[in-house]
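Form 12-C: Joint structure prediction
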Amino acid sequence: MNFELTEEQRMTRNMVRDFANDVIKPRAIDIDREAKFPIDIFKEMGKLGLMGIPFPEEYGGSGGDTISYALAVEEIGKVCGSTGLSYAAAISLGATPIYLFGTEEQKQKYLTPLAKGEALGSFGLTEPNAGSDAGGTKTTAMIDGDEFVINGEKCFITNASFAKTLIITAVTGKDEQGKNIISAIIVPTDTKGVTINSNYEKMGVRGSDTAEIILENVRVPKSNLIGDPQKGFKQFLSTLDGGRISIGALSVGIAQASLNRALAYAKERKQFGKPLSSFQAIQFKLANMAMEAELSRNIVLKAAWLKDNHKSFSKEAAYAKLFASETAVRNADQAIQIHGGYGYMREYEVERFLRDAKLLVIGEGTSEIQRIVIARQLGC
Amino acid sequence: MNIYVLLKKTFDTEEKIIINDGQIEDDSAEFIINPYDEYAVEEAINQRDEHGGEVTVVTIGDEDSDKQLRTALAMGADKAVLIDTEDDLEDGDQYTTTKILEAFFQDREVDLILAGNVAIDEASGQVGPRLAECLGINYVTTITDLKIDGDTANIDKDVEGDVEKIETSLPLLVTCQQGLNEPRYPSLPGIMKAKKKPMEDLEIDDLDLEEEDVEPKTKTVEIFLPAEKEAGKILEGEVEDQVKELVSLLKNEAKVL
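Section 2 - Result
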């Protein structure tokens, strides 16, 4: 066993850490307060090759691995949950399905601009009546000649307002048992009949764009179908497996940032003539926060390592997402507690960590869904 | 153009300095490229992009120093040289470093050598100028602008906040000051390419040097941390009384009046 990062992984982490501290961190409070998607930051990240870390050079990517990508998400998440979420979603959900299941032509045409950071991608799965129950998708894609005609509504879709391409899941027919066949189809956002609204008032990750998509008689070529026309559902389940690693990594970032802030404050703040960090009640909190952040990081990196080594990683990805996101919520909550009244104030940023972390136990599969995934892997 | 950068690794500025047995503990410390040397790397890359040629980054250190060299390669330098002295030298000073570099540059064609103004650890700022003297080439320290045209270099030199304009000729050694440029982040493609770039490993034997040739000229007598800052004093009461107390404290306690 070897826990050392490779030279490339270490350099990637250090570079993203420097970039996050210099460029993103000073704006994190405003990004949250103004709920404004920092598109300029994404352009800079694109120039540094960050939008294409896990994709090969032939499609405009950087030829990195999942571990490097997870380290990058953690570093961004440490300073800004909004930027971290949009970053993770752009790569894991917006671009990865095309890389994993797309045809050569689809990769050249749609993946390359995403990997180069010239455009953002977005993945439309959730619907008003199909959240955890993705099988309950109502959006339909009917074949008419050489085209799909898509009708339906998607909600809570990350990055959609700024995306050039959407990957939309839709019912394309019924199988022999009469069950819906759900497929994934590429829909450029400038296609006629696509309406994207971003009117949500969110609790956290406020600077990450979240939108609803309305599809009215949207026509795209049949060739925009991604992968196997029968196995669309299975495909995006495996997309979600990969996405879970990145949400785990983002959670580690918030969990670590919560610890860092709480520890620094506890050492500085004096009550009863002594620093808070000298009180055992506070020490125990800090010890738990540090331990759980590190354990979260371990499982995230293990899941990433399994994926990089082409081993099965579904269960570990669910562990990583579940444990790390719940750790992020706990650590952010404890960080506020350690800060006392100051922690409740925006200026001290730890209250933002909690609002941002709450999304991570909901998005890309709730904690409850993760437990179902794990239980199924156990053979239940 | 043959461009060389002298690079040193230093403690990460976030690191806490711990002294144990009169030595600075560096076992678990994170190291970075000396921030002033980052300006040198950036400038070297820019000059190469403008005039052509090759950038070689040179460091003296131990086997872990390859990390900082790889980062410089990821930023865009072409080649790196690590002169590993860990097994051969107990300790060294600016004389040691200068002697080793002098031997290294002995039979190399050099147009431009860039170094940091100072290293943030020992902050002597001596290696650059002393090396230039040994090599018999021109040098300018603390530069904030460099324009090269043929063999002529036009330089802005920072002199305590003012600017001195200097014209000189290549071959040339300069040391880089804050304000010269904004060092780039190594891009992901740069990081991926860094592994494939050549890195040469040398020891002092390879430079025909013996330990005695580079023996330090200075002796470190003691290493200690600065005295801890005491909490400030806040004066209270009527302004007039406060002023009186302040004057008395400055006279009697601080003894500055």
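Section 3 - Comments
The first strand of chain A starts at residue 120 and ends at 124. Chain A has a mean pLDDT of 95.
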